[in-house]
């Protein structure tokens, strides 16, 4: 039976262009010959915005919808006001395609440098809610530009939205050997949203008696992510806390250059989108300094999502071996991509 992957590719801005090229290189190298890979590139990001003033139109969404999955590099550029592409493209797309499970695994691979003492066993996954919280754009400004300006940014938490992501996290915890799940929030201060999350978490916990649960305030969680990262197995949290703790999680488990993510639409109604956790890194763009490993690992998540488990495993093994053998001599983005492609095809 011949198989095919119809992939939408969005290199985006800055290092997004550089790392996506490596992701595609490794994807082509790992796929067996009977899998037909079709890619369509989209020019979203700063280029499109400057040329047309558009970030993401309804016609774009229709075009993206026709694909099995989306691979994104990163968007965001100093030439575009902050928020225009982040809201107008990235969040619009995550919301339109109902990417409510934002999956961000963290694993400290053997031989990989960490700023933490020793080589702690870090292997956890953050299930970040992806469509609600303070990200919905529910707010506004009055008396703008005056000394009495007031700005609000309301966090939206629906029982429906919280329960579906909490259930997803419990199911993931149940399927992992340690079967542990931590809810991270701030229910001592954000009592309305926090109690909604806690009550739903406790209700669903009753259906998963094998899963050991704990609750942690987000400020304390930043301590434990540094001092005891091995205590975590699965974490579920809201959109903003998840954004912040996954950059921290990346920093302690090999760096932002190796942190992968998937924006999942579990029902499959819309294509899921896979992207590195990092951004467009304007400070190093165009210099061949970006580590493409995060994008390559995001390709592995993409393949696993589409049912290509053994190919995903080969990519993960290749990245792991490459990182373990990484010497002191820096390599370019392209060189790392070539080395990974050689490993998965060898
Ligand atoms: N998913 C996305 O598209 C996404 C994610 C985060 C930030 N952004 C956007 O990217 C722009 C820059 O944001 P930022 O500077 O806050 O975050 P960033 O993640 O782009 O960069 C933070 C730091 O990490 C380094 N870094 C990032 N990726 C790296 C890689 N692959 N290899 C080596 N070093 C790497 C950068 O050089 C920088 O020092 C902003 O416009 C922001 O909104 C986009
Ligand atoms: C660019 C921004 C909208 C985005 C987020 O906050 O989700 C980014 O930081 C991420 O982590 O993917
Ligand atoms: Mg982020």
TrEMBL record:
Known pathway: Amino-acid biosynthesis; L-leucine biosynthesis; L-leucine from 3-methyl-2-oxobutanoate: step 3/4
InterPro entries according to UniProt: ICDH/IPMDH, IsoCit/isopropylmalate_DH_CS, IsoPropMal-DH-like_dom, LeuB_actb
Main subcellular location: cytoplasm
Family per record: Belongs to the isocitrate and isopropylmalate dehydrogenases family. LeuB type 2 subfamily.
Any one GO MF annotation of this record: NAD binding
Function: Catalyzes the oxidation of 3-carboxy-2-hydroxy-4-methylpentanoate (3-isopropylmalate) to 3-carboxy-4-methyl-2-oxopentanoate. The product decarboxylates to 4-methyl-2 oxopentanoate.
EC identifiers of the protein: 1.1.1.85
Keywords: Amino-acid biosynthesis, Branched-chain amino acid biosynthesis, Cytoplasm, Leucine biosynthesis, Magnesium, Manganese, Metal-binding, NAD, Oxidoreductase
One GO cellular component, as annotated: cytoplasm
Site (Important for catalysis): 135, 186
Cofactor: Mg(2+); Mn(2+)
Residues covered by the Isopropylmalate dehydrogenase-like domain: 6-340
Positions contributing to substrate binding: 94, 104, 128, 219
Record-given protein name: 3-isopropylmalate dehydrogenase
Top-level taxonomic group: Bacteria
Compartments, as annotated in UniProt: Cytoplasm
HAMAP family attached to this UniProt entry: LeuB_type2 (MF_01035)
Positions of NAD(+) binding: 279-291
SMART domains given in the database record: Iso_dh (SM01329)
Example GO biological process: L-leucine biosynthetic process
Keyword hit for Oxidoreductase: yes
Keyword Metal-binding assigned: yes
Cofactor binding note from Swiss-Prot or TrEMBL: Binds 1 Mg(2+) or Mn(2+) ion per subunit.
Catalytic activities: (2R,3S)-3-isopropylmalate + NAD(+) = 4-methyl-2-oxopentanoate + CO2 + NADH
